[in-house]
Amino acid sequence: xxxxxxxxxxxxxxxxxxxxxxxxxxxxxxxxxxxxxxxxxxxxxxxxxxxxxxxxxxxxxxxxxxxxxxxxxxxxxxxxxxxxxxxxxxxxxxxxxxxxxxxxxxxxxxxxxxxxxxxxxxxxxxxxxxxxxxxxxxxxxxxxxxxxxxxxxxxxxxxxxxxxxxxxxxxxxxxxxxxxxxxxxxxxxxxxxxxxxxxxxxxxxxxxxxxxxxxxxxxxxxxxxxxxxxxxxxxxxxxxxxxxxxxxxxxxxxxxxxxxxxxxxxxxxxxxxxxxxxxxxxxxxxxxxxxxxxxxxxxxxxxxxxxxxxxxxxxxxxxxxxxxxxx
Amino acid sequence: xxxxxxxxxxxxxxxxxxxxxxxxxxxxxxxxxxxxxxxxxxxxxxxxxxxxxxxxxxxxxxxxxxxxxxxxxxxxxxxxxxxxxxxxxxxxxxxxxxxxxxxxxxxxxxxxxxxxxxxxxxxxxxxxxxxxxxxxxxxxxxxxxxxxxxxxxxxxxxxxxxxxxxxxxxxxxxxxxxxxxxxxxxxxxxxxxxxxxxxxxxxxxxxxxxxxxxxxxxxxxxxxxxxxxxxxxxxxxxxxxxxxxxxxxxxxxxxxxxxxxxxxxxxxxxxxxxxxxxxxxxxxxxxxxxxxxxxxxxxxxxxxxxxxxxxxxxxxxxxxxxxxxxxxxxxxxxxxxxxxxxxxxxxxxxxxxxxxxxxxxxxxxxxxxxxxxxxxxxxxxxxxxxxxxxxxxxxxxxxxxxxxxxxxxxxxxxxxxxxxxxxxxxxxxxxxxxxxxxxxxxxxxxxxxxxxxxxxxxxxx
Lengths: 327, 461
Hints:
The complex is a heterodimer of chains A (327) and B (461).
Chain A: E1 2-5, H1 6-20, E2 24-28, H2 44-48, E3 53-55, H3 60-72, E4 76-80, H4 91-104, E5 114-118, H5 134-138, E6 144-146, H6 151-163, E7 168-172, E8 180-183, E9 197-200, E10 205-209, H7 212-226, E11 231-235, E12 238-240, H8 244-254, E13 257-261, H9 269-281, E14 290-293, H10 303-309, H11 313-323
Parallel strand pairs in A: 2-3, 2-4, 4-5, 5-7, 6-7, 10-11, 10-13, 13-14
Antiparallel strand pairs in A: 1-8, 6-12, 9-11
Helix pairs in contact in A: 1-6, 3-4, 7-11, 8-9
Chain B: E1 3-6, E2 16-22, E3 29-30, E4 35-40, E5 45-49, E6 54-59, E7 66-68, E8 72-77, H1 84-87, H2 94-97, H3 108-113, H4 158-166, H5 185-197, H6 239-254, E9 257-265, H7 267-282, H8 290-304, E10 310-313, E11 318-321, E12 327-329, E13 331-333, E14 336-338, E15 341-342, H9 350-365, H10 371-374, E16 379-383, E17 402-416, E18 419-433, H11 439-454, H12 457-460
Parallel strand pairs in B: 12-16, 16-17
Antiparallel strand pairs in B: 1-8, 2-4, 2-7, 3-6, 4-5, 6-8, 9-18, 10-11, 12-15, 13-14, 17-18
Helix pairs in contact in B: 4-5, 8-9, 8-11
């Protein structure tokens, strides 16, 4: 095990894969000369040269489309969005061309492409730069959506995403790039897409949370432990396909579920998890399923409002106690 | 490549269509736009057009048939094409429709006697994660919420409902501790713990004493102490009893029964039987019972009355008039009743009938009959004469169209040529399925039976 920052784990994943396969290239704004806006691709230009680490103009629609064309012609692009807020400019490419090409060409074209970059709110960035896109992209058949919460998962899942023959949306977080944790040094370390991780076992209540929310869940679980309740924390890691088996198994054990999702609540990942759990484990529920999400408003700018806007451990503890009928 | 033509949705409210007329015959060429048929919907009669070219290979439904939207009505393809996979084995399989008679005791019994798994509260089984929203695969099915004594909906979590159901707990008995009185798991568990602590059944309240009644000085236990037992003995319903229940209920519910009774002069038949038995005794053959004479009389009569030897098959839209005469004889056995079948009884001699009847009845009592020995009767008789029953009505053994109930032979005064003389009479009652056998047909059959028995030498011809 090596202790790496999240950004270093992602870089290791890309570097190892590009060393393994010459067809892989990285394209995006400032990924080359500037080492990446968040230094994820630091040093990669020196190692792989301008042909494989490419600075694009500020034109998401253009370079996302270029990536898809390259993928259809046999290359394996990694397209970095400086943030996923900018992926909206390339929306048609990401949601229409990438996921539908295999289907509409009757299987003649594969689109092995990874769209990656930071997703979700990251402090005082204002409403237009604080969007969470996981529910949105998960809504389109043909896209896989991955959203890891710790560096080790980041590395293992990004390598798998790059090897996938279909488009993968890989969601990171500005606030987690500096997060240091142990990362496997195993040769060829990959983690399958679509498998959740039970991060903490407990009997009393299940908390499902991905990406930054996962860390809130772990915080809340510790506070609950102090109150005498054992929370089970599940990090889905992949939003789509979603590992419902693991979640359902846990709810069958605990009979209670709280879902944390920093997206806006309407038609969110939390909505989907909630629906599927009531569908598959209705008779195992002893309480309504509660969610901890951002409110249904644009993200504010003021720091105090932003604190109130984002899901937090206190609110999570509170909702867990409610489903435990402990309040 | 054969193309199936299905009943189209021709109006918004249409659920089924009646094919009112075929405009193209089987084997005729059609091309796109040709009108194949006229279809009557709930609103109007409309043309059914072909969208393809080819030969109309098959009209799957007949004119006048009503079929739901989407049902196959025709097949278009190339001449001579094999369309059996599209059309399937149209038409029923008569043999399979033959119900196995009593004594089919397959898998059902297993599930019945299998021990109920102990319901568990802790460590519930993981439900098989179902496919996306596949309600049918979800285990277990949701348990509905009940209502309290005043008809108000009881609020309970799904888990609490399930645990309550597994333990037979009435939710109305449980106090809810959740928001708005919702009953949650811990409430049901607390209730169950309380139940275990208390004696199983609450003591009955002592009856209030009537105030005016003088208090007896001595309290005595009643002299008629009742055993502390249930007022009935439990017995599992056997497979045979289930079969009897199902078949006879089905018969009585679906076949409109009516009954014809006739009093037969059996003086000569009794004499004939005595004579015959002297003969068979010498030859050491099976003795002929009076029932054998009746079997023979019925078998011969059925020849002349095909509707009595028939089956009503509404599913196939047909009545099956059997060419052969197989007579079922109801035999009482310890577990119930079974009807071994004398095949081709009309072609067998009396002594052969006698021997076979006895042999089948013996094996019926030891339950050693093979299924083919109690299946396939075309007519049945039931005889309670030996129990002193004068006359009775029997329930038709489906899919037969009639059954003959035979009463006792009795010595009775009869009027002959204006004088009362001793006579020997027997009443038989024919139960008929009115869907097949109308009154006059049933009466005509009985008359034939009667004449065979009253002039029994005919049975030997």
